[in-house]
Amino acid sequence: MEIHIRTARIEDTEAILEIVNDAILNTTAIYDYDVRTLNEQLDWFREKGQQNFPVIVATHENDKVLGFGTYGSFRLKAGYKFTVEHSVYVREGFSGKGIGKLILSELIEVAKKQKLHTIIGLIDTDNAGSIAFHEKFGFEKAGVLKEAGYKFEKWLDVQLMQLLLK
Description:
alpha+beta, Aminopeptidase, 7-stranded mixed sheet, 4 helices, about 30% helix, globular
C-alpha cells in the first residue's frame, strides 16, 4: 500500500472528523465524551491555519485519508511559545502499517522548520503501544499525571512525553 503525506485541505475535514469521532467513542486517545459536528471540526481546521499550526494527512488510493496529525499550543503563556502539544491519529483498521510513523516524522520536520524547541505528547498510561511508538522517535517520559482524566467510568493516568528538537 502506497501512502502519501501532505498538508490537509478543507475537504479532508470530514474524513478527519470520522477518525476523531471514532477515537472519542472507542478509545482513551481523546478524553472528550461527545462526538464533534462537522461545523466544529471545520472551525478547528480553520483555527489551526490561522495560528500557523500544521494539519498533516496520510492518504492512499483515491486520496482516502487514513490518518492525520497536528500540533498546537502547549500553554497559552508567552514563555511556552516554542513548545507545542501534538496529536497523531490513524483510521481504525490501519494501525501498524507505518502511517503514524510517516505523520509524526513530518510533524517533527515542520516543527523544526518553524524553529520550535519542544514537542509534548500526553498519552494514556494504558496505551503502551503509543508510548513505545513515541520512544522510537526519541520522546522521553517526563512524568505521570495521576488520575488527570476520567472516561469510560474510570480515572485515567496520563504519561507526559517530551521531544527536544535539535
